[in-house]
Amino acid sequence: MRTFIIGYGSLLKKSSLNRTLPQVNEIRPIWLHNYSRSWNANENITVTLATTYLGIDIKTGSKMNAIIFEIKNNLLSKLDKREFLYKRVKVDFKNIEDISSSLNLNSEDEIWIYITKEPNKATKKSPIIQSYVDTCISGAFEIEENFKIIDFAKNFVVTTNDWSNNWVNDRIFPRAPHIYQPDAYRIDSLLHDLIKNYYINIEVE
Q1: What's the whole-model pTM score?
Q2: Which of 50, 80, 91, 120 has a 20 to 30 A CA-CA distance from 43?
Q3: Helix/strand/coil for 131
C-alpha cells in the first residue's frame, strides 16, 4: 500500500514543501473533485501573528486544482505537526483526475488531505497575507512551467473561495517587491485580472 498527500496551498511551492519534507522529489498536478478550497483557516497564536490560510471544505460537485505526492508512512507525523490547524482525512482515489497523464492510483492506495478543523473566514484581525498568497501562486506558476500546463495559476485563483478585503500586503519593502519575491509582478497581474475588487483594496503593512 502506498501513501499519498494532496497539497493545495503552500505545498504547491517546492521549496515550501521541502522545508518540511526534503525527501519528496516528485509531485503531480491533479484536479480534485468534491472538495472546495477557501480562505478559512485562522491561526490566532498571538494578535500580531493572527493570519488566515487556505483550507478545504467537502463540497459535492466542486472541482479544484492541486498536487499529489507520495510519502513514507513514518513522515506523516512530521507533516501533521506542520498542519496543526487541520485534520488529516482520507480521500477516495475516484475523486482525483490526473492532469499530467503520469499518475497511476488505485483503490489500495491511501490518500490524505488536510481539512480545516475550525473554519472561519478572514477578518481584520486575522487577514489574508500577501507573503502566503505569493508562496501559493508562485508554486502554481512553477507547476505550469514544469508540466507545461496552461492556466494552472489562473485556475488556482478562480477555484479558491472567500477572497476578502481583509487582506494585507506584508511583503518586505513592497515598493521594490521583485527583490524579495521574483514572481511579484506576475502574481499581482493575475490577481488584478481575476479578483480586482479585492486586490485593489489590499492594505500595505
Answers
A1: 0.87
A2: 91
A3: helix
* Three-state SS at 163: coil
- Sign of torsion, CA 101 106 109 114? positive
pLDDT digits (tens, 9 = 90+) for 123-140: 998 999 999 999 999 999
Tell me how many helices (H) and strands (E) the chain has.
6, 10
Pick the CATH number of 3-204 from 3.30.2380.10, 1.20.1250.20, 3.90.228.20, 3.10.490.10: 3.10.490.10
Q: What is the pLDDT of residues 141-170, one digit of tens each?
A: 999 999 999 999 999 999 999 999 999 988
Task: Look up residue 86 and give its three cell numbers.
Answer: 487541520
Q: Going by C-beta distance under 8 Å and a sequence separation of 6 or more, which residues neighbour residue 81? A: none
